[in-house]
Design a protein that fits this description.
The protein is an alpha/beta fold. The chain has nine helices and nine strands. The chain binds S-adenosylmethionine (SAM).
């Protein structure tokens, strides 16, 4: 039985994939852009009313976000990184668009999502031998073990990306994920993620519960929204150092009424290096 929060998460996952497919996006010389587009074929991002979502609404958020992660992957490949771990990959097509000899991609997501992605990839006429699809629930599974089983080499640098993921995890699961990933991050590794940020001084639990009540009628899939400094401290605690931490790369995500005042929730793009 699928819960309302799970249905909303499914819709958001598909909106991300369909929205990105609308954008003009870079690729490597070996990248397969046709297969990347075909990967999302047939997704409909059905909303709770049973209607396909209006993808155009998401483009404002995706337009700055997608190139941020695209650029990091292209730069990492150019710098010699040979492992890209995509945490909460959903239907992200980067493993296809950024195919490059010697580079291995690890796409992790919930087991049912990965099973569907595997079916879709196998149906395409494209090489996927460089892609490891790893089904893992970050709330219960040990990501370090899952990566090891999938052939990830913890002695070599990795680019880890988590685009629009940690918002959907419980705070304790974010911490566990950061610790697990830290254990797989050899020197030279990079972790890039989006974090949802509320203004400093607010109670994060109150912000999250207000989102739940006001925006999702008690069935919110959004669980982790924190002050920027709290996110930075958390990364630090798990041996990830954010360069230029005082300069925020951020976009407005949504506004929330809190004590009858509007509060702006932003998405911050953070890139951290290991050690
Ligand atoms: C908003 S989608 C973003 C997907 C992808 N990163 C993108 O930008 O298209 C969030 C993803 O996180 C995954 N996710 C959420 N909770 C998870 C969990 N507990 N374990 C593994 N993946 C999870 C969802 O299944 C979903 O694919």
């Amino acid at each position: 039985m699928t819960t309302q929060a799970e249905q909303t998460l499914t819709m958001i996952r598909e909106v991300c994939a369909l929205g990105r497919a609308e954008l003009d996006r870079p690729h490597t010389t070996e990248g397969d852009t046709a297969a990347a587009r075909a990967l999302v074929h047939g997704l409909r991002a059905i909303d709770l009313a049973g209607e396909p979502s209006d993808i155009s609404l998401s483009l404002e958020l995706l337009a700055p976000r997608a190139p941020y992660f695209d650029r990091l992957i292209l730069d990492a490949i150019a710098a010699g990184t040979r492992q890209v771990v995509n945490l909460g990959a959903g239907y992200d097509d980067r493993a296809l668009r950024f195919r490059h000899s010697g580079v291995r991609f690890f796409d992790l997501d919930l087991p049912d999502v990965i099973a569907d992605k595997a079916r879709r990839l196998q149906a395409l006429d494209t090489d996927i031998t460089h892609v490891a699809l790893v089904g893992a629930d970050f709330a219960t599974d040990h990501v370090g073990d899952a990566l090891a089983r999938a052939g990830h080499d913890a002695t070599r640098p990795t680019l880890f990306i988590a685009e629009h993921l940690v918002l959907f995890l419980q705070p304790r699961d974010v911490e566990r994920l950061l610790a697990d990933v830290s254990g797989r991050g050899a020197p030279g590794s990079v972790l890039a993620l989006t974090t949802e940020v509320h203004p400093a001084g607010l109670d994060s639990a109150l912000v999250v519960s207000t989102v739940d009540q006001v925006m999702f009628d008690g069935a919110s899939p959004l669980h982790s929204i924190r002050a920027r400094d709290t996110w930075l401290a958390l990364l630090n605690q798990h041996d990830w150092q954010v360069e230029n931490a005082t300069v925020a790369t951020a976009i407005d995500h949504f506004e929330l009424p809190l004590d009858d005042k509007p509060v702006q929730i932003q998405t911050h793009f953070l890139t951290a290096t290991a050690g």
